[in-house]
């Protein structure tokens, strides 16, 4: 075991969980046993809530300009520790070192945004009648929770923690049991940055602790990022317990490619979008719809895909089960009559024989009813469908239950605008393969890719992590002047 057993982080200290139940943490890169992680119980969560509750009065009463000082220092510490964090991220998640560096850089950008929050929460004041003022303030909620997935062990925690905490809340985070290591390092950096004990806590575990979070009366709000299946469970359970909830789910993102698209740029973007982070991104291109004759572009996508080498510029998928699932999807498509142009099945990386790799895979002549066209595969696979018109392409895109992202590749501004207007997704790209909005714009999909109101990052997150207080004040002492005067 390379690292000591992963522990919870409660009230500024790493502490063992109360349960004996443990899972192994295995590196997808080479199958090495990295650590074990204990599956916490409701008792552990209670201790975390108690610590967060105790820290809340003092933390929430600090002026926000003081609270964000912690995040100026945290940002500096992320920069200083970038290499160590990126190595840890690659080791536990399997993505390439370059992808992990980009992930930590994104954490830095998210933290930068949090430091700008004082400028964004100034509230409003107006003299609504003579001598009478109405004023609004964004007030923190209290103890809040964030449940995160395996695919971005550092970035997704940083979607929530800097904003929620800078806005005055105390947070409990539940990392993915598959990648529990990065969060511990983030906790160390937050402590070094001067975050008071109890403001940030970690409880590790699986569905048992997630259910306990949704049920705990001391938690005011729950954010979730993960699959749609679990997003629905969490959203339903948390709101049934009268908590504020925002649950981001899975995705099936469509790229619509028109014949006038710039060939090289499009091919490079499609290949990069479907294979980045081994296709394990909720913003990855998973389906492509060629409108009209785009054979030349598809040929170039195959050329680009063949330049993506597992173990070099393509990371591993998270587990043996994931590899098997992805390969099963490819097999089903082949059996159903699709054509496998580039086949990533059976990939073994020399020297890393126990790693879990799937090579880039391009599947052509996919029909909308096939499983590879409908379901989230979460691997480096692109399923290509063909239509004659833009409206047929939009009908396919609109019919899929998800709605995270959609993109169009064309040089025709009018058609791009038409597709932007009619695609049913929260984040749209024009000649952009991975249309993630950069800060201060917010991140969030539509349909079955998100349950709840508002987005999880950027300005939109302010509404989720705070409640609005409205004060009406009358200072004119004269008798006979009423508040409507
Ligand atoms: P997952 O849903 O399996 O797990 C997410 C979290 O839920 C983990 O912390 C896990 O411990 C917990 N969990 C798992 N099963 C549970 C259950 N039955 N009850 C309660 N909690 C449970 O997701 P994952 O495999 O870790 O991540 C991949 C998924 O996340 C993909 O579907 C991907 O699209 C999605 N994702 C979405 C976004 C987005 O912004 N929409 C971002 C990243 C990942």
Helix/strand-derived category reads: alpha/beta
Small ligands present: nicotinamide-adenine-dinucleotide
Low-confidence stretches: none
Rg result: 24 Å
How would you characterize the overall build of this protein?
The protein has 485 residues and is an alpha/beta fold. The protein is 39% helix and 21% strand. It has helices at residues 42-61, 64-80, 82-93, 97-115, 117-120, 155-166, 181-192, 207-215, 228-240, 263-275, 295-306, 320-335, 371-374, 390-399, 413-422, 460-465; strands at 8-10, 13-15, 22-26, 33-38, 125-129, 132-140, 143-147, 170-174, 200-202, 221-225, 244-248, 253-257, 285-291, 339-342, 361-364, 381-387, 405-409, 427-430, 450-451, 466-474. It has a seven-stranded mixed β-sheet with strand order 14-15-16-13-12-17-18, sandwiched between helices. A six-stranded mixed β-sheet has the order 9-8-7-10-11-19, sandwiched between helices. Helix 7 links the parallel strand 8 (170-174) and strand 9 (200-202). The protein is globular, with a radius of gyration of 24 Å. The termini are far apart. The structure holds nicotinamide-adenine-dinucleotide (NAD).
């Amino acid at each position: 075991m390379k690292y000591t057993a992963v522990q919870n982080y409660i009230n500024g200290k790493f502490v063992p969980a109360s349960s004996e139940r443990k899972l192994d943490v295995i590196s997808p890169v080479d199958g090495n046993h990295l650590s074990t992680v204990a599956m916490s119980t409701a008792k552990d969560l209670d201790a975390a809530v108690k610590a967060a509750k105790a820290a809340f009065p003092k933390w929430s009463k600090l002026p926000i300009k003081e609270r964000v000082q912690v995040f100026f220092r945290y940002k500096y510490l992320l920069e200083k520790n970038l290499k160590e964090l990126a190595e840890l991220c690659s080791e536990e998640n399997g993505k390439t070192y370059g992808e992990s560096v980009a992930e930590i850089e994104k954490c830095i950008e998210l933290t930068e945004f949090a430091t700008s929050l004082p400028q964004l929460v100034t509230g409003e004041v107006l003299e609504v009648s003579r001598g009478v003022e109405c004023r609004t303030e964004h007030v923190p909620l209290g103890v809040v929770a964030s449940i995160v997935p395996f695919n971005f062990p550092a970035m997704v925690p940083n979607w929530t923690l800097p904003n929620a905490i800078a806005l005055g809340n105390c947070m409990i985070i539940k990392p993915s049991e598959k990648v529990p290591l990065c969060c511990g390092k983030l906790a160390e950096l937050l402590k070094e940055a001067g975050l008071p004990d109890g403001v940030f806590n970690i409880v590790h575990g699986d569905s048992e602790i997630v259910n306990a979070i949704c049920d705990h009366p001391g938690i005011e709000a729950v954010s979730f990022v993960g699959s749609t299946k679990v997003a629905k469970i969490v959203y339903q359970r948390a709101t049934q317990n009268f908590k504020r909830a925002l649950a981001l789910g899975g995705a099936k993102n469509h790229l619509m490619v028109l014949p006038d698209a710039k060939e090289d740029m499009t091919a490079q973007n499609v290949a990069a979008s479907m294979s980045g982070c081994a296709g394990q991104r909720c913003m990855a291109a998973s389906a492509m719809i060629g409108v009209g004759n785009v054979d030349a572009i598809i040929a170039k996508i195959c050329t680009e895909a063949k330049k993506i080498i597992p173990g070099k510029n393509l990371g591993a998928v998270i587990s043996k089960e994931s590899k098997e699932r992805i390969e099963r999807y490819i097999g089903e498509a082949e059996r159903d009559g699709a054509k496998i142009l580039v086949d990533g099945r059976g990939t073994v990386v020399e020297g890393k024989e126990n790693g879990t790799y799937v090579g880039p895979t391009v599947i052509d002549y996919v029909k909308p009813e096939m499983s590879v066209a409908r379901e989230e595969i979460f691997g480096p696979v692109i399923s290509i469908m063909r239509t004659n018109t833009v409206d047929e392409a939009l009908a396919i895109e609109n019919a899929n239950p998800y709605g995270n992202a959609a993109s169009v590749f064309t040089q025709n501004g009018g058609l791009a605008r038409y597709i932007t207007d009619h695609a049913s997704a929260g984040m749209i790209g024009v000649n952009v393969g991975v249309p993630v909005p950069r800060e201060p714009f917010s991140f969030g999909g539509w349909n079955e890719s998100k349950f709840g109101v508002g987005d999880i990052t950027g300005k939109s997150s302010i509404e989720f992590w705070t409640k609005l207080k409205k004060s009406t004040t009358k200072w004119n002492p004269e008798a006979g002047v009423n508040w409507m005067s």
